[in-house]
């Protein structure tokens, strides 16, 4: 077990996404979580809409090209770098612009409405399809089969993996199918959604940060942005992503994307935080947008000796008895030192409960080949 980090390790988001073993500056800031991206992936033109989705459960995920850029000189590789990837695994039919989402307090619930949470997908569409089918949440054709079940995605649909837009299309379609069947499928805003939307809106426009002048597009590339996702991002994707809430409460679980207390900086209730972050996106001030993204990249607030206290603080303000989050891959959350080949030595088998049983980590590190996996769990955990 590695040395535990203090509450809410700060991040420099115009540098690669920080992690537990990153180099640490004198002011506590961390950097160099991911190696710089490899050669750009050629844009993939969208495929024509099809009548049905060729799911292909059990088919292997498209393998990544093993050629990657070397890590920064002073820091050993800690997480799979951005890889040169092939064409998307599965193309989804075009999805029409979604209707306004129902209010959070109007969604169905009850004993006949089981609750599921899904960790960071990061473009691994086939893993998501396989996992949903294994849980009985979709049928062999990839359509909703979960009845009145409730599903919450914890954010980070895109970047690093082969088909982020395919993941978004699938979730949007399942949301419509679930509503027609008396259930629902919803999602939270992750830091990679904030980054993707910022890169799409502001591109290379300079943004001033504590680490100097940066841009959303440069940060997106450093943090695993895939060119074919940006090429296929359409207005209805942007509209849907822009309306995602930052947090919610379900069955006494406080669901958030990031394991950070930075949500407290946006309000003292779930509604206030969601409204405040939505207002940041609506106003379109790049500096405020960047600051929101920077705060949502912080991590590890609930780890170590001070972790339970931080978890209790968040729960006391927003409600719920247990926090469920994504964002920090479980092997890194455990603080395991990597081996010479960059592996953590941890095999993820399920969610990680910690902080005096007050927090549940759901980012299984799907990008970590041979160690991580996409996590889908029914709450409450047994």
Characterization of the model:
This protein is α/β, with parallel strands linked by helices and 382 residues long. It has a single domain (23-37, 84-379), classed as Purple Acid Phosphatase, chain A, domain 2 (4-Layer Sandwich), CATH 3.60.21.10. It is built from ten helices and 13 strands. The strands form four sheets. The chain has a five-stranded mixed β-sheet. The protein has a four-stranded mixed β-sheet with strand order 5-4-3-13. A two-stranded antiparallel sheet has the order 1-2. Strand 6 and strand 7 (212-214) form a beta hairpin. The chain is globular.
State the helical fraction. Answer: 25-40%
Structural class: alpha/beta
* Strand order of the biggest β-sheet: 8-9-10-12-11
Following the backbone from N to C, one meets helices and strands in this order, namely EEEHEHEHEEHHHEEHHHEHEEE
Question: What is the CATH domain class?
Answer: Alpha Beta
Q: What is the 3D shape?
A: globular
Notable traits:
382 residues, Purple Acid Phosphatase, chain A, domain 2, alpha/beta, 12% strand, disordered N terminus, four-stranded mixed sheet, five-stranded mixed sheet
List the helices and strands and how they pair.
Layout: E1 23-24, E2 30-31, E3 115-118, H1 125-134, E4 150-153, H2 164-180, E5 184-187, H3 191-202, E6 207-209, E7 212-214, H4 216-222, H5 227-232, H6 235-242, E8 247-250, E9 253-256, H7 270-283, H8 286-296, H9 307-318, E10 322-325, H10 330-333, E11 352-354, E12 359-361, E13 376-379
Parallel strand pairs: 3-4, 4-5, 9-10, 10-12
Antiparallel strand pairs: 1-2, 3-13, 6-7, 8-9, 11-12
Helix pairs in contact: 3-4, 3-8
């Amino acid at each position: 077990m590695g040395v535990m980090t203090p509450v809410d390790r700060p991040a420099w988001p115009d540098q690669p996404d920080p992690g537990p073993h990153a180099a640490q500056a004198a002011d506590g800031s961390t950097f160099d979580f991911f190696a710089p991206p490899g050669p750009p992936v050629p844009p993939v033109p969208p495929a024509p809409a099809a009548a049905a989705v060729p799911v292909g459960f059990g088919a292997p995920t498209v393998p990544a090209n093993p050629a990657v850029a070397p890590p920064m000189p002073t820091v050993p590789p800690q997480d799979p770098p951005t890889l040169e990837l092939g064409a998307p695994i599965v193309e989804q039919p075009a999805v029409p612009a979604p209707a306004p989402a129902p209010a959070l307090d109007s969604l169905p619930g009850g004993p006949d409405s089981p609750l599921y949470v899904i960790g960071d997908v990061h473009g691994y569409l086939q893993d998501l399809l396989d996992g949903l089918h294994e849980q009985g949440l979709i049928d062999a054709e990839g359509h909703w089969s979960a009845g009145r079940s409730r599903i919450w995605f914890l954010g980070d649909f895109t970047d690093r993996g082969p088909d982020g837009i395919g993941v978004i299309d699938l979730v949007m379609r399942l949301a419509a199918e679930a509503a027609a069947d008396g259930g629902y499928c919803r999602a939270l805003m992750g830091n990679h959604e904030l980054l993707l939307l910022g890169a799409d809106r502001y591109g290379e426009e300079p943004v001033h940060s504590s680490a100097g002048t940066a841009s959303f597009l440069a940060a997106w590339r450093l943090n695993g942005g895939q060119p074919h996702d940006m090429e296929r991002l359409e207005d209805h994707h942007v509209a849907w992503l822009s309306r995602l809430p930052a947090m919610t409460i379900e069955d006494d679980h406080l669901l958030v994307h990031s394991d950070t207390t930075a949500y407290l900086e946006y309000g003292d209730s779930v509604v206030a935080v969601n409204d405040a972050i939505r207002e940041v996106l609506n106003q379109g001030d790049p500096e405020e947008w960047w600051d929101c993204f920077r705060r949502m990249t912080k991590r590890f607030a609930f780890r170590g000796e001070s972790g339970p206290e931080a978890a209790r603080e968040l729960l006391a303000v927003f409600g719920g008895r247990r926090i469920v989050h994504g964002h920090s891959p479980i092997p890194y959350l455990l603080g395991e030192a990597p081996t010479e080949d960059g592996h953590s030595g941890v095999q993820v088998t399920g969610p990680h409960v910690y902080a005096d049983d007050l927090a549940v980590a759901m980012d299984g590190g799907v990008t970590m080949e041979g160690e991580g996996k996409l996590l889908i769990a029914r709450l409450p955990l047994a």
